[in-house]
Amino acid sequence: TRPTKTLLLGNGDLSSYEEAVEKSQQYGTDGALLGRATFGNPYALLPAKQPQPTTLFEIALEHALIYESTYQANERYSFMPMRKHLGWYVKGIPNATEVRKELFQANSAAETAEIFVKHGLLEPEAVARIQESLPSFNFTSRNLPEEKYNIHQAVA
Asked: What single string gives the DSSP state of each residue in the chain?
């Protein structure tokens, strides 16, 4: 045991849960921090053998919905800061440049859902399921028919 109660955490260019555990054991730290490795890849925080419960695009849409719901009451609200996070989720997919370009112009979670559906990254049923699982995060879209996507009118 160490003579101090201060936590010692390792940090720097760790790319996975396994690498963080390995380095923590190797250097005797209390833990390790994963930073950039998690950008667009929250699964970096899970052991590789653990099943991934949802797709990255479902997580990205949930992220956008939660961001929007959390900050839109602010008088200076803008969806713009969320765009950079959305760009990370499409890293490495076919047509990533085109999808990223569209996401960087999105102004809402609903527009994000439209882009994901348009490019086949999410099925309309997944959009509806996500919306239902986050009932306080209702969103609407000008371009998606409500009956097809089960998207409710946004709460003003």
From this structure: --S-----EEESS--SHHHHHHHHHHHT-SEEE--GGGTT-GGGGS-TTSPPSS-HHHHHHHHHHHHHHHHTTSTT--SHHHHHHHHHHTTTSTTHHHHHHHHTT--SHHHHHHHHHHTTSS-HHHHHHHHHHSTT-----SSS-HHHHTPPPPP-
Percent of the chain beyond pLDDT 90?
Answer: 48
pLDDT band at 2 (very low <50, low <70, confident <90, very high): low
Q: Which residue has the tokens 């959009």?
A: 127
The percent of residues above 70 in pLDDT, for the chain, comes to: 85
And the tokens for 22? 């390995």
